[in-house]
């Protein structure tokens, strides 16, 4: 079984929009995946995937449908269980231990393709419910925090509305704000823009770019190659449950090593 | 003919197309009549025949129920002589029908009890008062006063054992007991059935399937006659309480399946979003899943609650008379037994009043939910 370990220690610091990666990414890996494998029944979705993500690093994962991108990032906060290999976040290994899962999840926010806002709660309550229940914040403090993040995603005026009364782009920005209210160190994005109409994609990407500029550690599954080019420190291509290519945007787009990457880029850039 | 919808649906998700059909759209009456009743010769003919029959029936009801009816007389012979309905039977017999075997001189206590009961229920149904600081004292106060009124034995009131309770107050007590005990049990059973823990799931499945599979009367027989055999000697649980719990558990098994339907309708994304916020199982269940599941299943829940109102008649098996069985008993009176139709129409009207009030309220709750008020 051949596996190509993602090389994330970008050795040649290349020009990048915000502070140079060597400055930003000086600590050791915050997320460490070692030979992670997962099966659905007899079907192996992930084949010995290894990946390091350092604090402040921005990783974009792309790849054809069904290649296991969602499964991979969902393993990182235990929405899926991996069967082999190690997942270590902030030095804590992901095991069956509920305490460990809680500790790891505390540091990870997640944004879904279908937003998954709570439809029976208004925007403000969607944002405050986590801080109040999980972090035991007082209602007033939680609301203040929520309003701060709603300002950040530029929809403070929608606080009293219900999710289904908002546009898709607004809903996704609420979802981002909801995750941020838990003040995580890591954000996972699973195709956050692919359920959106084209004119709404930009507003969500802008929010994500701002988040990246603020130094958030991010792993984004997305097919927005423009976003990958400007924001990513590391772009990864997955195919058939393996990471087949990994490198800086320059390497990834300019000089892909694997023919599958070329094929994928040709297909996706045609559109 | 196109009709413009008056309230455009406010909520359209990107996934659902906007609904064009609006059941509340207004159509001019004349046009409606023409379109639905007189499009073809055959249809016009049918319309006329049906209209004639309806008019005939309406005339019969008017003649029997009003024109030829006797509204008041203490003398059954007057009714006998009349061609129409004998509403006098209700005037004559309303007290045993409404209050059953409860001592005649103490009926005033039941009147106060019903006022207290209904005001408490009405108050509890208003979203404005949904606040534990108001509801808990209110319920403590009214349950205590209802207890005092029904049992007596204090404050100079004559003691009335549960074996003498009856009529509408008994129906009310049984009905609220059924719902208040049954709903929480139903929620627990529904959650248990979908629990990740095999033991909880197994127990719930067996419980629900076993009890749904037998007739209510069997469960009540067990509650009344078999259950006491398992109690240590000297311990006795009130018969009325036992039967209330029996009815409530039967109700809960059906309601649990309804709630399970609602739980199944919640997309997994909701669980995942809650998990990614690090919410625990119970936090997720209480704050995210149940509120949505109960909203989804509200129409079916209401349906079972209304049905439960009529199951109270089963208390007859412990010799208690709710409003329906009390009426049956009263109608044994040879002087008045001919007029059982009038008496049952009266009972039907009482059931209809409460049943319709419940369904109106449920409809209002759905409106509140849709407009985001609750
Ligand atoms: N719950 C499941 N049970 C069985 N197979 C599953 C399950 N979830 C995903 N799979 C399979 O695992 C594979 C990887 O799925 P995954 O959702 O991770 O792909 P993806 O790369 O995110 O694809 P997409 O771009 O379409 O979102 C697919 O072949 C899918 O059919
Ligand atoms: Mg996916």
UniProtKB/TrEMBL annotation, chain B:
Gene3D superfamilies in the record: MetI-like
GO molecular function: transmembrane transporter activity
Pfam entry (one): BPD_transp_1
Annotated localization: Cell inner membrane; Cell membrane
Family label: Belongs to the binding-protein-dependent transport system permease family. HisMQ subfamily.
InterPro entries listed in its UniProt record: AA_ABC_transptr_permease_3TM (IPR010065), ArtM/GltK/GlnP/TcyL/YhdX-like (IPR043429), MetI-like (IPR000515), MetI-like_sf (IPR035906)
TM annotation in the entry: 41-62, 107-126, 138-160, 172-192, 213-234, 240-259, 314-331, 343-362
BP GO annotations: amino acid transport
Name of the featured protein: Polar amino acid ABC transporter, inner membrane subunit
One GO CC term, this protein: ATP-binding cassette (ABC) transporter complex
SUPFAM superfamilies in alphabetical order: MetI-like
Chief place of localization: membrane
Superkingdom assignment: Bacteria
Membrane topology value: Multi-pass membrane protein
PANTHER family: INNER MEMBRANE AMINO-ACID ABC TRANSPORTER PERMEASE PROTEIN YHDY (PTHR30614:SF41), MEMBRANE COMPONENT OF AMINO ACID ABC TRANSPORTER (PTHR30614)
PROSITE patterns the UniProt entry points to: ABC_TM1
Biological classification of the source: Bacteria, Pseudomonadati, Pseudomonadota, Alphaproteobacteria, Rhodobacterales
Domain ABC transmembrane type-1 residue range list: 168-362
């Amino acid at each position: 079984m051949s596996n190509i370990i993602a090389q994330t220690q970008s050795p040649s610091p290349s020009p990048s929009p915000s502070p140079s990666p060597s400055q930003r990414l000086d600590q050791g890996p915050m997320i460490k995946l070692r030979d992670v494998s997962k099966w659905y029944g007899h079907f192996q979705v992930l084949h010995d995937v290894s990946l390091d993500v350092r604090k402040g690093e921005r990783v974009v994962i792309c790849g054809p449908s069904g290649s296991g991108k969602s499964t991979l990032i969902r393993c990182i906060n235990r929405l899926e269980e991996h069967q082999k290999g190690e997942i270590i976040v902030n030095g804590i290994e992901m095991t069956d231990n509920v305490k460990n899962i809680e500790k790891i999840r505390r540091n990870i926010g997640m944004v879904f393709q279908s937003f998954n806002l709570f439809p029976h709660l208004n925007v403000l309550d969607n944002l405050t419910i986590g801080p109040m229940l999980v972090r035991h914040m007082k209602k007033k403090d939680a609301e203040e925090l929520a309003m701060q993040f709603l300002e950040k995603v530029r929809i403070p005026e929608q606080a009293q509305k219900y999710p289904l009364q908002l546009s898709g782009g607004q809903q996704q920005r609420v979802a981002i704000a909801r995750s941020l209210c838990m003040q995580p160190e890591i954000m996972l994005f699973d195709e956050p823009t692919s359920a959106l109409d084209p004119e709404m994609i930009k507003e969500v990407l802008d929010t994500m770019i701002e988040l990246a500029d603020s130094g958030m550690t991010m792993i984004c599954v997305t097919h927005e190659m423009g976003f990958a080019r400007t924001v990513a420190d590391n772009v990864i291509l997955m195919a058939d449950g393996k990471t087949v290519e990994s490198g800086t945007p320059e390497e990834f787009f300019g000089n892909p090593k694997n023919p599958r990457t070329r094929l994928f880029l040709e297909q996706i850039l045609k559109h | 003919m196109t009709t413009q919808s008056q309230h455009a649906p406010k909520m359209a998700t990107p996934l659902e197309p906007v609904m064009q059909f609006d059941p509340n759209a207004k159509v001019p009456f004349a046009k409606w009549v023409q379109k639905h009743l007189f499009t073809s010769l055959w249809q016009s003919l049918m319309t006329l025949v049906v209209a004639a029959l309806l008019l005939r029936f309406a005339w019969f009801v008017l003649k029997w129920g009003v024109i030829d009816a006797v509204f008041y007389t203490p003398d059954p012979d007057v009714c006998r002589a009349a061609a129409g309905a004998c509403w006098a039977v209700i005037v004559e017999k309303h007290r045993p029908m409404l209050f059953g075997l409860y001592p005649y001189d103490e009926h005033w206590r039941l009147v106060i009890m019903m006022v207290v009961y209904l005001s408490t229920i009405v108050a509890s149904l208003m979203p404005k008062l949904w606040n534990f600081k108001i509801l808990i004292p209110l319920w403590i106060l009214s349950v205590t006063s209802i207890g005092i009124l029904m049992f007596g034995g204090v404050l100079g009131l004559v003691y009335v054992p549960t074996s003498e309770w009856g009529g509408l107050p008994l129906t009310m007590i049984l009905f609220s007991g059924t719902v208040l005990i049954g709903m929480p049990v139903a929620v627990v059973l529904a959650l248990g059935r979908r629990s990740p823990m095999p033991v909880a799931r197994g127990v719930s499945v067996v419980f629900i399937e076993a009890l749904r599979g037998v007739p209510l009367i069997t469960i009540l027989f067990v509650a009344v006659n078999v259950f006491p055999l398992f109690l240590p000697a000297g311990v006795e649980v009130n018969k009325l309480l036992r039967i209330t719990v029996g009815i409530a558990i039967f109700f809960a098994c059906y309601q649990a399946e309804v709630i399970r339907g609602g739980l199944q309708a919640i997309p997994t994304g909701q669980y995942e979003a809650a998990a990614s916020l690090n919410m625990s199982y119970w936090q997720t269940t209480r704050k995210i899943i149940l509120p949505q599941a109960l909203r989804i299943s509200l129409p079916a829940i209401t349906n079972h609650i209304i049905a439960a109102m009529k199951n109270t008649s089963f208390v007859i098996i412990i010799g208690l008379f709710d409003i329906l069985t009390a009426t049956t008993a009263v109608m044994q009176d040879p002087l008045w037994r001919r007029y059982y139709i009038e008496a049952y129409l009266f009972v039907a009207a009482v059931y209809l009043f409460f049943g319709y009030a419940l369904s109106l309220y449920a409809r209002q709750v759905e409106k509140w939910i849709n407009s985001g008020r609750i």
